[in-house]
Amino acid sequence: MAFSPRVIALLGFGEAGSAIAQGLCVEGGWRGVPALGDNAPRRLIAIDTALDKDARGTALGKAARALDVAISDSYTETLRDADLVICAVQGEHALEAAAAAAPLLKKGVHFLDLCTVTGKMSDEDRAEIEKGAGRYIDVAVMGGFFKQGIKAPMLVAGEDATEAVAWMNANGFDAKLLGPKPGSASSVKMLRSTLIKGVEALGVEALVTAKRQGILEEVLACLSDADQMPFRDFIAMLVQTHIVHAHRRWEEMGLVAQTLRETGVDPLMTEAIERNHRRTVDAGIAPANGQVPSLDDALTILSEKVIRGV
């Protein structure tokens, strides 16, 4: 029989939880409280330990009640009614939420972990849920709830992920099946963040310098070559050519750092890049024939000869 929950519990009613509730209630016809005579209600309940504790807690309480969603500040027996639990607390509280909820959940309940956690943290969350015979599903949110609401793209992984993805997409979500290995979705999100937040930090450093020098538009215009290929291919090309050109790029980054200092900008990111390239130079991996390797070969060389463990 297809997965078809009748009662959903939302753990956390911040930006993510309230956006999901909004989507399910307003767009999907779910209700916070069953109507009289409704023998099979589709019902939402919520738990948020910050409820009414401060200004934020008061606001999230108002948001829940506006949707007619019953909300509590503690993990109570009402969780036993849930067929599906969606955990959307802050990553640092994910394990605490899983441990608090697990003893109250009925056997076989689907537990969707939307928290921003590492792969190892996801494994810890899963262990708690599976102690109580729950079915843990790893979900990585790849977009923003503020603009996209329930349509924020999600990657889903876990042994029971297939039926969960089918239900999610039928109920307003934008979910993509990643595979059966829980934790892999969280790891994909973390590594994507390495790239995106890294570019963000570099953008701050470079564009502040450009602004101070009065050449902001010129710097932005010179980036047009990067628009000639998909971002994924651009990143792969940089990694491949790093094998061949690390020495020249290392020397250039020393001059870039000097340029930033002359403009009064602390070259925090630039110095890190300089050290990164120097590490490759010191490993002596540049090919004698100057040929750029494939991405797979480049990553093997970097993994085996340059990037050591901690």
Describe what you observe in this structure.
The protein is an alpha/beta fold. It folds into two domains: 7-181, Rossmann fold (3-Layer(aba) Sandwich); 189-305, N-(1-d-carboxylethyl)-l-norvaline Dehydrogenase, domain 2. 50% of the residues lie in helices and 13% in strands. It has helices at residues 15-27, 55-66, 94-101, 119-131, 145-148, 161-170, 184-213, 216-221, 231-262, 268-283, 295-305; strands at 7-11, 43-47, 70-72, 84-87, 110-113, 135-141, 153-157, 174-179. The protein has an eight-stranded mixed beta sheet, sandwiched between helices. Helix 1 (15-27) links the parallel strand 1 (7-11) and strand 2. Helix 3 (94-101) runs parallel beside helix 4 (119-131). It is elongated, with a radius of gyration of 24 Å. The mean pLDDT is 92.
